[in-house]
Amino acid sequence: MSETKKTYWKGLAQLKNDPNYVKHANDEFVDLGVEEDPGHSRRDFLRMMGFSVAAASLAACEAPVRKAIPYIMKPVDIDPGIPNYYASSYVNGGDYCSIVVKVRDGRPIKVEGNSLSTVTMGGTSAQVEASVLSLYDNFRLRGPQKGDTKTDWEAIDKEIIAKLEEAAAKGAAIRIVSNTILSPSTLATLAKFKAKYPTTEHVQYDPVSAYGITQANKENFGVAIIPSYDFSKAKTIVSIDADFLGTWVSPIEFTKQYATTRVVNEDKREMSRHYQFESNLTLTGANADYRTMIKPSQHGLVVAQLYNLIAAKAGKSALSAGIDKVANLEKAAEELWGNKGSALVVSGSNDKAVQVIVNGINDLLGSYGTTINTSLPVNFRKGNDETMASFISDAKDGKLGVVIFYNCNPVYDHPMGEELGNALKNISLTVSTSYTPDETSSASAYKAPDHHYLESWNDFEPKPNSYSLSQPAITPIFKSRQAQVSLLMWAGETVEDYFSVLQENWKNWFAEKGTDFQVFWDKCLYDGVYQAVGKKEEEPKGKEKGKEKTKSPEKVLSYTGKEQEAATAIAATYKAANEGVEIAIYESYAVGNGSQANNPLLQELPDPITKAVWDHYVTLSQKDATKWGIDNDAEGNTQKVKITANGKTVIVAALVQPGQAEGTVGLSLGYGRTKVGVVAKNIGANIYPLITLLNGSLNYSVSTGVSIEKTAEDFQIAQTQIHQTYMGRENVIQEATLAEFKEDPSAGRDIPKITKWDEKVDIASVSMWKGHSYPNHHWGMTIDLNSCTGCGACVVACNVENNIALVGKDEVIRRREMHWLRIDRYYSSDAKHDDYKGLEIAAENPEVTFQPMLCQHCNNASCETVCPVAATTHSTEGLNQMAYNRCIGTRYCANNCPYKVRRFNWFKYHDNQQFYQSNPAMNTDLGRMVLNPDVTVRSRGVMEKCSFCVQRIQAGKLNAKRERRELKDGEVVTACQASCTSGAIVFGDMNNPESAISKLLKIDHYIEKEVEKDGKKVTEKVFNYSFDKKIGNPRAYRVLEDVGVKPNIFYLTKIRNKDKTEHTS
Amino acid sequence: MPKHTKMKENLVGLLKSFTFALFISVTTVSFAQEISKDATVIKAGEELFNGNCKACHRVKQKLVGPALAGVDTRVPSVAWIKNWVRNPAKVIASGDKYANDLYNEYSKSQMTAFTSYTDDQIMSILAYIKSEADKPDATAATQTAAGNAAGQGGEPSGYLDVILVGMIVILLLMLAILGIVSKALKKYLNEKPLSEEDKEVVNSPYTLGGFLRSPGFIFLVVFVVGAVTFKTVIDGLYSIGIQQNYQPKQPIAFSHKLHAGAYEINCVYCHTGAEKGKQANIPSPNICMNCHSQIKKESPEIQKIYAAIGYDVNSASYTGKQKPIEWVRIHNLPDLAYFNHSQHYNVAGVKCQTCHGPIEEMEVVKQYSLLTMGWCIDCHRKTDVNTEGNAYYDRLVQVHNAAKGSKSKMKVEDIGGLECSKCHY
């Protein structure tokens, strides 16, 4: 263990030793004062109990008659009780993920990544995992509507066609508005529509735009594209406000690539170094090795300065813009230059000028052709901010005859949405195809709901030559209709179903001559993806408009520098020392851009950084908070602030956030939905109106004219961050710098000793427990703290897989969230406890460590010993089992758990109208369809916790038994492991020498034992079935090893790529 | 081949007039040598026959299809059988007379095609049919055996009677002895010089009232009544939710006694899920239609199937008007218990009857077993793990044998079969 012991704290309240915090710090279950008197007495209880017993016995006299209704004609491939898996694709605007859908008895119940995809490579995100619940959203549109009155398709078609023809006859402008469209067949559909109505134009926009990048590339390469980035090839990564692990362009793909560069072991003692310059503490910033806080108004200058520093080394002339004294910038430039050819600079700015300079830097560094591939442009963000702006002004000016909104919600998620909403009233025909009610569909005359993506046929082209198919995993639940079919029918085509349209397109585009199309199609559908070898034989007809073409260029594009002009623009816009507060706007990690806001899984997903749920807030630095008189306490009590910018005012709660640049505040998009189901209704404020156009593209920051005022209104934010502290015990997070790791792979490890009367011995050698022997399997897990980015996909995956109740904001405030798996986020500081000044400096820009925390499946489990009814017991496979129906709810186990991972059902969360809003999956007939039938829905008064997905273990074992063979590694995958894009979680059988976990932990499976052979004593190597295995990986440690509970979960030390033990400030 | 066709016609004629004798004497020599008498081949054939043919055919009995005894000799050729089995439609379409006659005889019901059967497999089935056909009729023998078994089954209750009678006799004897002892004591005491009070006690008469009022009797009565009430209440509480012998009326009077009993149709022929999944599945009506598109078409119960699946008997076509059948669920495990049929039927090789009872004797199915957790656990304690030929268990067997010796059998209990999360999660 190194000399410098860092202090971790879970929130500012702990840091400040807030009396309120200290009071509750050691309590597992907090009594937060007097609850409302329910008006029941003990006598009432006895009376009720007497009655219930009598009622139960009476009811039991006659068993309820239950019906069993078999199929009439059983489909060959569907067997009740046996899941089917279908490859498909998740697409939400420009967000893409290739997935596998688990379908039980005709109902999709789980979504997982598809490892056959070359784009997302099996990764997922929280939103992808949660999307299965959106399918069963009770607030979905049940069928077509004219205004608010329900109608049928025939009637709506007739009226829409009549109006379209009328508009076409008059030559009135027709606009189809959408987010980025990845689907070639949809584009072909739009082309057919345009052929019928020639005045049609297609307007694409993105709620979170990357138009600046495409424009910069147009400037430098002549084509408006976003190139492919390859973080896996980068040794030095510099990101200026690009949250590429969280929200920027293609986070799943980037996380996958990034994670490969962060893996270290005894054989590979190198990792990438990541510099981040940003205003808000983003997910990416939290994972960076060096993080520097800058203001949005400095963004362009920092980029320019980085260019200047590198240009100086390259012998090029410096730009007219720049900034001095940016911490770590010179060091970053030095290293970028040193790693020329394996360096990558990205910027999250949507300003063309800034992106031109970033291109210039990447050109100097030789990134084109190595870490950036311009010949493989990605299609994720094709939105054009300028055409969208002119569309809205056309709408306002009454120049449009027809507007069709294809699965988009610009009234909410465009800065000029409100104006657009008002203008729609004056347009003769407005149609929205959204599958749920939203602000735009409410403002439109007709609602023609599309299917949910899990009910639709679709194809996608996320990158040139990488195709992906979507297939229905369920028959449409409501009378919705595929939007493409609607468009084709309105264009006068006769369409049976979209499937045949899609198949026909693929037949024309991809079918290789001489091969059977059906065979080709079946293979593509089975895989879910199709990787074309060469170019498509024929460009889809839908790729209209030359300037929007994303045709793959045949050779690497030639680069033309335009840095000087850009620098002039930057010098005019950005300031080194801006007075006044600035707003940095970001996309929420949980609810994203707001399109899935009505999904409670996402609302109750703690934000990776702030750990807040169900709430919208503004993040600000401690210094600013003090200045403005805002005080956060341990219970999330805070004040609302009034923020005025660009003539708009929003009122949100204030949240003090370490790592927030002083003089800036962070505001997230995705909240403030008004026309939406009950889940998301009236949470927070809509931030989109604060966005303005800068140099033709949307600018996600406000640097001038911002005023912030504290209001008199108090507010409580529900946060999970200060719950369940480790009571000041050390050795929870074990970390080292790469420099230390290179010298000693066990650097940072804390090996606790216990003092005997004569000597100090390893804690592992002392135990008062008998231990266990596992003759068959020994399930274990490792979590690599270096790979974990803290994204939270595992939390949602666990929720969906295990039917975990969502409890709502009020219950989270009472610390009663039910998540079996949480991600603990620790801030660190090098300062000592008594060095208050030192702590203060660290608080401004702390190092962050994410630690997924779930039931550790201890071999010497302390929960098992205290259960008076043996409801929690140990299995012969190393699992700590929980029998819900045996549990009587004493909660002794939770009190005795050192890891605080046991969750208690304070209420009956199912079939309880009280939780209708937060937990629709257990309270509506529609929602219940998402429940996993293999997992019990727990009732009130019982304890629950992570089961290592025992239902999956049992299913995997049974499969092997049925096939009369051994269970192979990788057959049993826990839900969290499957969802983990970065591969931080490895689960498997530690008794199997061939398993990934055995290899990762370097387990020695044999022990020497003395045996008698022919009268002589010989030592022989025998297989070690004991729970206590010799772990060879120097990075592996158990959390709270000194407690001696011997968990089956191992963590691998966090390694930061820093020169020495230091902290940045 | 006109000659061949002529021969076929002859053969059909012979068959129809039931004059086998000549035919057999002519043909046995030519075909018999091809059909194996090897026991392994017969065994393989038996498995195939039971798995695939038995639903419609018997060796000596006409069922949906003809009895198959002597089939090798009565049809045109063995090659014909092979063609027929693999694709009967093709044979009929080719205009083959024998095939068409057969088709017409069985009211145009066509046999299922078994396209994937190899020559060896078909020959093994023929070998089995031949060996079965050659066996003497075994029904009588079975009956006697069954009678014996029933007689043996009665014996334990006989023992019980003898013991009971013996005990009663002993008790009566003891009563008599006690009476004699008491009389002798009284006599002895009366001869002694006793005080008045003592005399009164010795000579006090036995009155019923005195007996009923005695503390001993009151205690006994209270104790017995208390114990019986307690036992009844506890038994009553324990029986809550237990539906043993639950035998609801079903929407269609389907008889397992007929199908599983008399016709010996394999359970998984209809309950297709038992081999592969959690649910055994109530068969969908399309399985019924495999046979009942031809058999017992007029039965009102079968009409219910037609109504459900939308089948028009007159035109022999499906109308598309379907109406699901709402069977009454008999076996209701609580949702908190996970049970998987394939684990028990497929992996462990447990017979269906072990839990479902003599289903082949039930006209109306009832819940045979308790289906309580104690009942599950009990079986898991007693049952040996079926490890044979299953590589999954190899390591477990190895460890078990090393610890307890290869003679002690590995029970389900020994491999964690009693652990909570084997069934509850």
Task: Provide the helix percentage of chain B.
Answer: 55-70%
What average pLDDT do the residues of chain B reach?
Answer: 82
Number of helices of chain B: 20
Overall body shape of chain B? elongated
Q: How many strands, what sense, and barrel or not for the largest sheet of chain B?
A: 2 strands, antiparallel
The CATH architecture classification of the largest domain in chain A is: 2-Layer Sandwich
* SS element count, helices of chain A: 32
Q: What's the name of the CATH homologous superfamily of the domain at 2-136 in chain B? A: Cytochrome c-like domain
Rg measurement of chain B, Å: 34 Å
> What is the domain total for the residues of chain A?
4
Instruction: Classify the helix fraction of chain A into a percent range.
Output: 25-40%
Structural class of chain A: alpha/beta
CATH topology of the domain at 2-136 in chain B: Cytochrome Bc1 Complex, Chain D, domain 2
Strand content of chain A: 15-25%
Number of strands of chain B: 3
Oligomer: heterodimer
Give the CA-CA distance, first to last residue of chain A.
Answer: 24 Å
On the 0 to 100 scale, the average pLDDT of chain A is: 88
Layout of helices and strands, plus pairs?
The complex is a heterodimer of chains A (1065) and B (425).
Chain A: E1 7-9, H1 12-15, H2 19-24, H3 42-61, E2 67-68, E3 84-92, E4 95-104, E5 107-113, H4 126-135, E6 145-146, E7 149-150, H5 153-170, E8 173-178, H6 184-196, E9 200-204, H7 211-221, E10 226-229, E11 236-240, H8 251-261, E12 273-278, H9 283-287, E13 290-293, H10 299-314, H11 329-338, E14 343-347, H12 352-364, E15 372-378, H13 385-396, E16 400-406, H14 410-413, H15 417-424, E17 429-432, H16 439-443, E18 446-447, E19 458-463, E20 466-470, H17 483-490, H18 498-509, H19 517-527, E21 529-531, H20 563-573, E22 582-587, H21 600-603, E23 612-613, E24 617-620, H22 622-628, E25 637-645, E26 648-656, E27 664-669, E28 692-694, E29 697-699, E30 701-702, E31 707-716, E32 718-719, E33 735-737, H23 738-743, E34 753-755, E35 760-762, E36 779-784, H24 793-801, H25 809-813, E37 822-829, H26 836-844, E38 847-853, H27 862-866, E39 872-874, E40 880-882, H28 892-896, E41 903-904, H29 920-923, E42 943-944, H30 950-962, H31 975-979, E43 985-989, H32 996-1001, E44 1003-1004, E45 1006-1013, E46 1016-1023, E47 1030-1031, E48 1036-1037, ...
Parallel strand pairs in A: 8-9, 8-16, 11-12, 11-14, 12-13, 16-17, 17-18, 22-27, 24-26, 33-50, 36-49
Antiparallel strand pairs in A: 1-37, 3-4, 4-5, 6-7, 6-18, 10-15, 19-20, 20-21, 22-30, 23-32, 24-27, 25-26, 25-31, 28-29, 34-35, 36-43, 37-38, 39-40, 41-42, 44-47, 45-46, 48-49
Chain B: H1 2-16, H2 20-32, H3 39-53, H4 71-74, H5 78-86, H6 88-93, H7 97-105, H8 119-134, H9 139-191, H10 196-203, H11 208-213, H12 215-238, H13 256-262, H14 267-270, H15 285-292, H16 300-309, E1 311-312, E2 317-318, E3 327-328, H17 341-347, H18 352-356, H19 373-382, H20 394-404
Antiparallel strand pairs in B: 1-2
Helix pairs in contact in B: 3-8, 15-16
